[in-house]
Specification:
Strand content: 15-25%
CATH class: Alpha Beta
Bound molecules: 2-acetamido-2-deoxy-beta-D-glucopyranose
CATH topology: Rossmann fold
Helix content: 25-40%
CATH superfamily: Alpha/Beta hydrolase fold, catalytic domain
């Protein structure tokens, strides 16, 4: 277990000054008086069910509107960060859907908290299906975009490679979960450590096939881990879905985390072109290498937007830092 934890969040790195001020502009649970929120669920191509929220302006005009699907950070649920982004975009006239990734939150899937990147990506396409066929508000099928925060940044890219109905793609504080699992942050994990991690997960799989207890990944030691802790384990961003417990939230199972080792979201990223991509990250973020890498491998049109002074988790909920204006303009321009 120890080496997986080291693999997930290996480095003790500097965390931005803002990140250390927990209260600075943190509005994870922001609600808008102008926006209607409605719980929804819809099927995937594999007949599993994804749970989400639908957001639209209370006075949404009847004309066809552009839409955006929003995915939450890895280990989170839609109530964490995704609802906030979906609400703020809905205020600007987009019809938005925040989703719970399969096996997380209110979405279907047993056991809970397992890792299956293909199904995570599929959830974005399933949300596009939903938006394109439902009649509550009129969505223009040709004007649907995707937005992924943290791990969902890599899942929405993975989805967009296979689904040309996703017409514009934005990420915030993106984590490439594949590179993270293989190499750690900033290439901090050696091949020997990777093999050790694989051995641990494999042995844990024996334990589980023998009927033993599921183990979960966990970490709380480094500066990076504390940055996550300040969000997920304080009233700033803590959320426990129905049927779960606080201890269970945020932790993928140990024996499935290794599925990310086969996940290469940026391979073929250039085939998304000419659909536009926008990568947003804090210039102090411990995860900045992932946005940088995706940006350099993507083809035009593409944009890399550094938020001065912001760390990784800052862009989950600090509304004074999240560049909603540029995000809105990106989708307005590219879903016009
Ligand atoms: C933290 O941010 C709040 C605003 O949200 C501000 O009032 C306070 O002065 C900041 N504290 C520090 C130590 O910077
Ligand atoms: C809510 O709607 C009112 C009336 O259209 C508008 O003046 C206000 O700016 C909107 N607020 C937000 C946060 O979008
Ligand atoms: C939406 O409306 C169309 C045309 O009226 C209808 O065929 C379709 O079944 C409706 N879809 C849903 C999900 O209600
Ligand atoms: C994790 O770290 C925080 C401080 O950053 C501490 O308050 C908390 O008790 C720790 N939790 C565990 C489970 O070690």
């Amino acid at each position: 277990m120890k080496s997986i934890n080291q693999c997930i969040l290996a480095l003790s790195m500097g965390v931005s000054a803002i990140a250390q001020n927990m209260t600075y502009g943190a509005e994870n649970f922001y609600r808008s008086n102008n926006v209607t929120v409605q719980p929804i669920s819809f099927p995937t191509q594999y007949r599993t069910t994804v749970a989400g929220n639908l957001f639209y302006l209370k006075d949404q005009s009847n004309g066809a509107a552009p839409a955006v699907v929003v995915g939450h950070p890895m280990g989170a649920v839609k109530e964490q960060s995704a609802n906030l982004y979906a609400t703020r975009l809905a205020e600007q006239g987009f019809i938005t859907v925040s989703i719970d990734l399969p096996f997380w939150g209110a979405s279907m899937g047993e056991p809970r908290n397992v890792v299956l990147p293909d199904l995570y990506a599929e959830a974005f396409s399933a949300a596009v299906d939903y938006l394109g066929i439902q009649n509550i508000t009129s969505v223009d099928r040709e004007r649907i975009g995707g937005l992924g925060i943290c791990g969902s940044g890599s899942f929405v890219i993975s989805a967009a490679k296979l689904d040309s109905r996703i017409k514009a793609i934005a990420t915030a504080s993106m984590y490439d979960m594949g590179t993270l699992a293989r190499q750690g942050l900033q290439n901090s994990q050696s091949v020997d450590q990777l093999k050790e991690t694989i051995d641990e997960a494999s042995q844990q799989r024996w334990t589980e096939s023998d009927g033993g207890e599921t183990q979960y990944t966990s970490a709380n030691a480094t500066a990076v881990e504390r940055e996550f802790y300040d969000y997920y384990r304080t009233k700033r961003g803590e959320f426990v879905p129905v049927g779960s417990t606080l201890d269970l939230t945020t932790h993928p199972t140990l024996s499935t985390f290794t599925k990310f080792i086969n996940f290469y979201p940026f391979n073929g990223i250039e085939t998304i072109s000419p659909r536009p991509m926008l990568f947003i990250a804090g210039d102090q973020a411990h995860s900045r290498e992932f946005s940088q890498d995706a940006y350099s491998r993507a083809a035009e049109p593409k944009e890399l937007l550094w938020v001065p002074g912001a760390g990784h988790v800052d862009l989950y909920d600090r509304t004074r830092l999240i560049p909603f204006q540029q995000l809105t303009e990106f989708f307005q321009t590219n879903l016009a």
